[in-house]
Amino acid sequence: MSDIAIAVRNLRNQFGQHVVHEGLDLDVYRGEVLTVVGGSGSGKSVLMRSILGLTQPTAGSIQIYGEDVLRLSAAERQRVDRNTGVLFQKGALFSSLNVRENIALPLREHLGMNANDAGDIASLKLALVGLDAQTAETMPQSLSGGMIKRVALARALALDPDILFLDEPTAGLDPIGAGEFDSLLQTLQQALGLTVFLVTHDLDSIYQVSDRVAVLSQKKVLVVDTLDKVAAYQDRWVQAYFHGPRGRAVSNQQMRPEHGN
Amino acid sequence: MQENGYIHFNQAEGRDCLTLGGDWTVAHYIDLKKQLANLGDVPQSVTCNIESMKKLDTAGVQLLYRALGEHKLRQLPLTEQQHNLIDTVINACSNQEPPLPPKSNGFVKMLERIGIFSSNLYRNQRDLLGFMGATLQSAAQVIGRPSRWRVTAFVAQLEETGLNALPIVALLTFLVGAVVAFLGATVLSDFGASIYTINLVGFSFLREFAVLLTAIMLAGRTASAFTAQLGSMKANEEIDALRAQGLNPLELLVLPRVLAMLVSLPALTLVAMASGIGGGMVISALTLDISPALFLHIFERDTGINHFWVGMIKAPVFAFVIAIIGCNEGFKVSGSAQSVGEHTTSSVVQSIFMVILLDALFALFFMEINW
């Protein structure tokens, strides 16, 4: 099927005696924002790393646009990787390069652009994520948390990927910064037609940006559906997550009629 | 699956027409930019035909925006999603500030760098003295209160800096002792004075080589380790966490390291002396037929105890300087991985430099007092 971007089948991840995933199935459709939630240690990051090829799963198959990425050669894998952008939890900006060079690096390495062209595109990407030209020359150490996330997003978008992986993009941001980041993500996702795989704990983000929500629990995907249906799912953890004190506060806010930008 | 992007300019029925096709994506950016440059100026009245255009991404929109301008771009018959894309990119482009003014020229920059380097050099030395003072101060505070002695940390550091360095120091000085004996045997035999090889090895190792080689070895081995350990802790805000809990990082982290060095460097120097002289003794026995018993007899007869003290007195001084430089550089690390690397390099270079400089000053001093 062409509208499935990522298909995970029967995935198993095991570290020593510790089984993280067992028989995990998950589909991500083209152009949707899929949020993955789950308790700490439920294997959200491991799932993301497995799809990205950073962790080799013990068993199972992972298809990206119909290609079984676990069985590709290194060169073919690289071609697939060029189509995915990743925002790591702490940004993972290269500390020895300034902001512009951070974004320009994949352009120069993969597409053989010269410094001017790559810098040009990097400036556009920075403008897209709402940062000004002054930021381009600064080093990552001197950026604030919110700016690091924005630069990391700009770098993830450098090669105009189809699929974007975000690992807790709003963790560590203040509520205003997190809200702005969510709006930015939403705008870019709609404009660029991105498929987004979002790992987050931020209930506000889940309510604002996600098309579907996948709950990781008991070593597999417990339920994956639209937010309303997942929130209504009868499971202790899911109920506590979406209807605990924090979950209630957010959902009440979202349902208030005067709300909506 | 991929199709190269292209743009053609043609005149049909007296009208200017631009034909755009293929993928206008970042993968074809270089090629498309060249094509646009070859096209030159596009007349305002041109119409665009984009029927065969396949994909469009931000880089493609950026190129089209530069070539066609906002008005023309918005008129293109595209899908709704592509119009969203164009709006987003145009918004971003129009919010973009003009590029920064060009940087100053190379000569001014060089002068600037020399200036920065010189003032840093001065500031570094002042900081080092300050750090030395602060360490001594916290040592003075702790020394009267055995309950605050960090015995475990001290012993752990002693094992790491002293015991673990023992094999390499012994081997190294043994080999150098052998080399010096070879040199002596070769050069002195021309004068019929090969017996003085014993004095050569004895004097050089007691006075200079043992302590100098050990100090350089530890500067490379231990100063770098101190800087990397403390630097990573600094980068991880562990040192700030100690301070915030009212604990003194100098007392917890620096003092055990400095004390361990003060013990292990003299101890290793003693080993180095024995090992170097042992190397000389083996070579003398093998090539000069001087038996170990004769070697030791002549060594004992000709070499005063003052030569031993000349070497030993220097050891704690070097130890203190190496440990202080290693720790101080660690505390100067700021955040990034690159910074850890820079300061580790700097700590090794500085401590070796200081060791050799101090050794030269010591040599002058001992020469003046006729030791």
Automatic annotation (TrEMBL), chain A:
Which molecular function GO terms apply here? ATP binding; ATP hydrolysis activity
The ABC transporter domain, residue ranges:
6-243
Does this entry carry the keyword ATP-binding? yes
Instruction: Establish whether keyword Membrane is in the entry.
Output: no
Q: Which Pfam families has this protein been placed in?
A: ABC_tran (PF00005)
What Gene3D superfamilies does this protein's entry cite?
P-loop containing nucleotide triphosphate hydrolases
Task: Tell me the superkingdom of the source.
Answer: Bacteria
**Which keywords does this Swiss-Prot/TrEMBL entry list?**
ATP-binding, Nucleotide-binding, Transport
Could you tell me what this protein is called?
Phospholipid/cholesterol/gamma-HCH transport system ATP-binding protein
Source species:
Idiomarina aquatica
Automatic annotation (TrEMBL), chain B:
Entry's Gene Ontology cellular component terms: ATP-binding cassette (ABC) transporter complex
Q: What's one GO MF term for it?
A: phospholipid transporter activity
In what way does this protein cross or attach to the membrane? Multi-pass membrane protein
Show the stretches that span the lipid bilayer.
168-189, 209-231, 252-271, 277-296, 308-327, 347-367
Superkingdom is: Bacteria
Q: Which InterPro entries match?
A: ABC_MlaE_roteobac, Permease_MalE
Please give the chief subcellular localization of this protein.
membrane
| Record localization | Cell inner membrane
Q: Which UniProt keywords apply?
A: Cell inner membrane, Cell membrane, Membrane, Transmembrane, Transmembrane helix
Record PANTHER family: ABC TRANSPORTER PERMEASE (PTHR30188:SF3), ABC TRANSPORTER PERMEASE PROTEIN-RELATED (PTHR30188)
Q: Which family does it belong to?
A: Belongs to the MlaE permease family.
Q: What is this protein called?
A: Phospholipid/cholesterol/gamma-HCH transport system permease protein
